[in-house]
Amino acid sequence: MPTHIILIGGGGHALVVAEAATLAGHALAGFVDDQPPALLERLGVCSRLGTLESLAQFSGPRILCIGDVNCRRRLAARIDLTNAFNVIHPTAFVSPSARLGKGIYVGPNAVIHSRASVGDHAIINSGAIVEHECTVGTHCHIAPAAALGGNVSIGPGSLVGLGARILPSITIGDGAIIGAGSVVVEDVGNGAKVKGVPAR
Ligand code: JB2
């Protein structure tokens, strides 16, 4: 029996999570969103179950499908995610020694390598690489094609932008933003925003 998953959010990120879930052999129960008509409904991917508040009526597995890190963090504090479910695209590689929390999305061709750990409600997006022994905090978004070298640590609620590179053993603080295409060669503090090559 496939698992019937409730998607939280109905926009672009929900669309890719829905497709990955289906390819992974799960079924979609539907989505919740405060702002109809959402993209998922317009495209006929699945139907809207109700508002975010209505989620309380359902007990099934669910996943936060909103790309914005701060929004995911806010919602995770407000809604019941005890039953959060991981959606892993079938073409992703997740090492058997990696540790995953719950409610995580791992996109196509993403890699989570040996003994890496990924916190609850994080996004490891299309083609992103999380090398061996990295730690990715809760609610982080590692954007498409971003790469973390071995032993990198990313604090909770941080965004690593499209195609950014983080050199091995670098520590990025909580709530940091790393601009798209950056190359990070030194540690980044809590709440810092850096960009460029090298990132400053
Ligand atoms: O507080 C909120 C909120 N609550 C519910 N803020 C925002 N921004 N969105 C909220 N939502 C719901 O999340 C909206 O009603 C909508 O259904 C969805 C956001 O959809 P949108 O298509 O704008 O963004 P997304 O989060 O699905 O996708 C973004 O992030 C992805 C990682 C886009 O930037 C994508 O291009 C990106 N790939």
Structural overview:
- This protein starts with a strand and ends in a 6-residue tail after the last strand.
- It has a seven-stranded parallel β-sheet, covered by helices on one side.
- The chain has two domains: 4-78, Rossmann fold (3-Layer(aba) Sandwich), CATH 3.40.50.20; 86-194, Hexapeptide repeat proteins (UDP N-Acetylglucosamine Acyltransferase, domain 1), CATH 2.160.10.
- The chain has helices at residues 12-23, 39-42, 69-78; strands at 4-8, 27-32, 48-50, 62-64, 87-88, 93-94, 99-100, 105-106, 111-112, 117-118, 123-124, 129-130, 135-136, 141-142, 147-148, 153-154, 159-160, 165-166, 171-172, 177-178, 183-184, 193-194.
- With 200 residues, it is α/β, with parallel strands linked by helices.
- It is globular.
- The model has no long low-confidence stretch (mean pLDDT 97).
- It has three helices and 22 strands.
- 13% of the residues lie in helices and 26% in strands.
- The protein binds GDP-perosamine (JB2).
- GDP-perosamine binds next to helix 1.
- The site of GDP-perosamine has 14 residues, from helix 1.
CATH class of the largest domain reads Mainly Beta
Radius of gyration: 16 Å
CATH topology description of the largest domain: UDP N-Acetylglucosamine Acyltransferase, domain 1
**β-strand amount:** 25-35%
Element-by-element helix/strand order = EHEHEEHEEEEEEEEEEEEEEEEEE
Overall tally of domains = 2
Hetero ligands = GDP-perosamine
Q: How many strands appear in the DSSP assignment?
A: 22
- Unreliable parts: none
Distance between the termini: 50 Å
CATH superfamily of the largest domain: Hexapeptide repeat proteins
- Say what oligomer this is: single chain
Under the CATH scheme, the architecture of the largest domain is: 3 Solenoid
